[in-house]
Structures are given as structure tokens and as C-alpha cells.
Predict the structure.
Amino acid sequence: MNEPPIPRQPVRPPPKGSVRRDGLFLNPDGSRAGPTTAQIWRLMRERSERAAWPLWVENPSFPAPAPPPEGHVAVTFLGHASFLIRFHDGPTIVTDPIWSDRCSPFRFAGPKRVRAPGLAFEALPRIDAVLLSHNHYDHCDIPSLQKLRDRFAPTIFTGLEVGKLLARHGLKNVVELDWWQETALPQGASATFLPAQHVGARTLMDRGRTLWGGFAIRPAGGGRVYFTGDSAWGPHFEDIGHFAGPFDVALLPIGAYEPRWFMQQVHMNPEESVRAFQALRARQALAMHFGTFQLTREAIDEPARALGTALAAAGIPEEDFVVPGCGQTFILPLTVA
Ligand SMILES: [Zn+2]
């Protein structure tokens, strides 16, 4: 007698969109997103324990970014979470663009940049699309978005409910996306908005009212690029690797992680970034979110050093997860269908 075939179980449940409770978006694991007010006050009281950063760092000089050959992507690190991403047949994208001196609601206070942007605004090629991971000041810089609008009028792709803030500042060419929602980008490319463990906020009062996330980008000619935005470590990276990966290149945050009691709910340390790199099934990773604005306690060179230690411990060659220079361009092959 033939045995009935063993039914194949899906390894992971299919991905779901975001979930809100009492009007607030939750993390992918269903937990409340972001720190509590009590945790924020405690962090502010402990401000004096921050390492001293230099007031200014000169960027090394790199050749101007050139468009990539066929079958390749050119990724230029502009500092913090800003990248210029160019595909051979388009589109040309910037992520979380910030050219301002401070990432803050104020011009006179708040984290100040300690190095120039990796490319002067005037030196940008034509920008077709902006990918905006969330509305924190170091990712969503209104003056930079307005300058991009005035010069190129690109479409801004971002999370649910972020558009109202943008519209108040005259930024109306906006597409809001839910987690796992796919959208067309210019020149036949597409993108999927992806979950992250983080939070959206502009003030102490609006935590969780707007959605945050990352992007998988697929140009028309094939290939996959992943941009994290901000995220703590979580099993959602395995979901992203499973359902949206593998990736030719993953842009992964490595900085702004101390003190852990506070930061581990919103940002990864380098050891966790290496875990995310493995979970994403990416061939190459480029580090981001370090060395431009002091947001947290660790020293300016600590993320790169800790990344080296974490890669060695995991047996991963350093050239697989590179810390880019600010302004450095990487021409990488696109092989994922
Ligand atoms: Zn953030």
C-alpha cells in the first residue's frame, strides 16, 4: 500500500503587512515600537557618558561616481544612510538624502555633521526616485528633499502615513507603501517596502504613528539591492532573505548602538549586522549609519572596529562586508534574477 505523500509545510508563514494597535504601528514581531518616555528621559540624563567625537573629519578623495556598465550597479556612499544608486538602464536613486549640517528640528542645536557629504548636491546626476525609510530627522531631511524636488522632481517612496508631513512642506510627489507592498519605480524597475524593527517619530508625542521600513530594489535588467533604513536585529531579516532575497548587495547599518539597554530596540550593533547579512542571503554588504552624525555613545571609529571583530568571529572575509569611505563608489555585478 502506498503511503500518502507527506504534505510539504511552508518553512515560514507568508509575510503580512503592518499591524496597528490603538493607531500605532507595531514592530514585525508584534511588540510596541520604540522606546518608552521613561527610557528617553533616562538616556538624556546619561548624556555625559558619550565618547568624544572629533569636530571635523576630512573625507578621503574619491573619483566622481560614473554610471555602471551593463549588468552592474554603482553604489556611492554619501554618508550616514544616504546612498546614490545607479543602474545601467536606470533608474538613479538616492536613499534617505541628507545634505544639511544638522539632523534635528533646529538649525542651532542637535547632532551636527562631522564630515562633508560624500558628493556635493550640485554634483548629483539626474535623480529619478528617492527612497525614504522613515521620518526620523537623520533620514528624512526636509531641506534636502525640497532641493531634490526643485532640481529633479523625483517621486519619493516611503512608509504609510509619512506623506502628510511631506505634503506640509510642499512635497506632494509621494508614494506611501505598506510592508511587503510592491511598487513600480521609473524605467521599469520595482521596489518592495520591507519590515524593520524600529519606529517612526518627529517628536516625543508621535512615536509609531508613521510606518518605517527598508526597500528591496529590482532594476528592469535583473538584480536585487537591499537598503535597510534603520532596524534593530530581529527574525524579520530571515523573512526578508527568504521572501525578497537573495541580494546582490545589502546596505546595512552598523552604528548608533550604545548604550545597548536603550539602542538594541531600534539599532543593530555590528555583531547583529553580521547576523542580518547572513540571514538576508546577500553576496556583498556595504556598511552605513556610522561616522557622520554622533547620535549615540560609542566612539566614531568603534563600529568599523567592532565589525572587523564580528566578521572574524563569523569566519566571513572582510571584503564581503565593507566599510565604505564617504564618497566611495562600488561597481558591483547584478546576478540575482
Ligand atoms: Zn531612525
About this structure: The longest strand covers residues 72-79.
